[in-house]
Amino acid sequence: MQLFAIFGDPVAHSRSPLMHNAVFKHSDYKACYTRIHLKDGTKLRETFFNLQLSGANITVPHKEAAFAACDEIRGFANKVGVVNTIAEEDGKLIGYNTDADGFIFAIEEFKDIKKVLILGAGGTAKALAVRFLEENMDVTVLNRSQGRLKFFDELGCKSASWSDFELSSYDLVVNTTSAGLKDDALPAPKELIEAILDATRYAADAIYGKVTPFLALAEQKGILYKDGADMLLGQGVLANELFTRKQIAKQEIAKYMRHSFLL
Ligand code: NDP
Prior knowledge:
The protein is of the alpha/beta class. The protein has 11 helices and 12 strands.
């Protein structure tokens, strides 16, 4: 029996155990997936080995710590320095990032996205910014504080904090901050968010399982929006493929995970 887990702080809200366990159960794969409330990201590696995990997902705020905890990084995670999936291989921790492709999957029905505003500058924002640039989109990053913006400037994005932001028009605005996750906060002051939503065609939030204040405002304004559920599904399918080493077909994984959303 293999054991998998999600690490985060907070982590109680995570639907990943339901999603992965649904796949394991319905495909007779001998594994179980649990959640671990980890406060100190530097303890990730030792906790992983102490619990003899075969793999893990990592959520807020430990994705950068997860990158540092790995022995080897593969694929897209190398470009962003952020890991959301770890698979154990011969006693080594191999790190991956499945968030960005999960998001591209989620916004498939949004058409002609050329100009994007990302709210937040954490791990998710990094992954999305790199992926959007790969799609030749024009990317601006707006964050509460200045400190994390350098990465985006060097990448070729425009960037600003609340005090020096200059509004433009956008095809899509994505909230990747954790504002609204455990509180009723907006990702930026209300006047700023109102102005931004008035200047966009679509809105999306990485947070799932609730209508965040950001999406509630988008809805009020009649803007087509998505919450993070489809992004969660997309990243989960790709992570499960890595955990089970492609022994289960992608379509089957997606079917069982989608089904778990109804539970
Ligand atoms: P990080 O901790 O790496 O980054 C958090 C960001 O949010 C920082 O830019 C921080 O700004 C900003 N922030 C935090 N609180 C506030 C606030 N009250 N107002 C404005 N800005 C704030 O987080 P992640 O990138 O890992 O995750 C972000 C969110 O995305 C989480 O809610 C997570 O659950 C969700 N998520 C969902 C996924 C899905 O599959 N649906 C996948 C991945 C993430 P500062 O730099 O100033 O501190």
